[in-house]
Amino acid sequence: MYTWSTSASDRLDHFDGLIPFDFKTEPAESNSKYLVNLLSLELTYFCSGLLFAAVVRRRVWDYALTVTLLHVMITSLVMLEFPMVWQWWLALGSGLFLMICNGQLIAYFTCQSDQSYASFSIY
């Protein structure tokens, strides 16, 4: 994976400000712009899960869903079109799943000593 990500970012000709919102790039393994978009989306969602676990400590799933809905709305506004590309939705969904899982697990294990967090009755 390291080689793939390094070679994908090395072949990127220029940085485009639309990278976080671009769903129109042709999804192909040989397309460096697509690989950079995919890698940046997944890494951002992974790191966001860690950040949410550290900051909010509870209900990471709620923050993850809210940020994802905001991302879809901003993407639609920036690109002036609603994303209909199934590969983009698959990448977004897997990133969301990754963010929720790692964030909730880290929040759960770091807050185990907190009695109010230990029970799931607050959910």
**Cα-atom radius of gyration:** 17 Å
Tell me the total number of β-strands. Answer: 0
Distance between the termini: 37 Å
Q: In what range is the share of β-strand residues?
A: under 5%
Mean pLDDT: 80
The 3D shape can be described as elongated
Alpha-beta classification: mainly alpha
Element-by-element helix/strand order: HHHHH
Number of helices: 5
Q: Into which percent range does the helicity of residues fall?
A: 55-70%
Q: What's the story with the biggest beta sheet?
A: none
List low-confidence stretches: 1-5
Overview in brief:
The protein is mostly helical. 67% of the residues lie in helices and 0% in strands. It has helices at residues 2-10, 32-55, 60-79, 86-110, 115-118.
Write the layout of secondary structure elements.
Layout: H1 2-10, H2 32-55, H3 60-79, H4 86-110, H5 115-118
Helix pairs in contact: 1-2, 2-4, 3-4
Using brief descriptors, characterize the structure shown.
Integral_membrane_SYS1-rel; 123 residues; Transmembrane protein 244; disordered N terminus; single chain; 5 helices; 67% helix; transmembrane helix; transmembrane; membrane; mainly alpha
Description:
With 123 residues, the chain is mostly helical. The protein has a domain at 32-109. The protein contains 5 helices and no strands. Helix 1 packs across helix 2 (32-55). It is elongated. The model is unreliable at 1-5 (pLDDT under 50). Pfam families: SYS1. InterPro entries: Integral_membrane_SYS1-rel. It is found in: Membrane. This is Transmembrane protein 244. The chain crosses the membrane at residues 34-56, 63-80, 86-109.
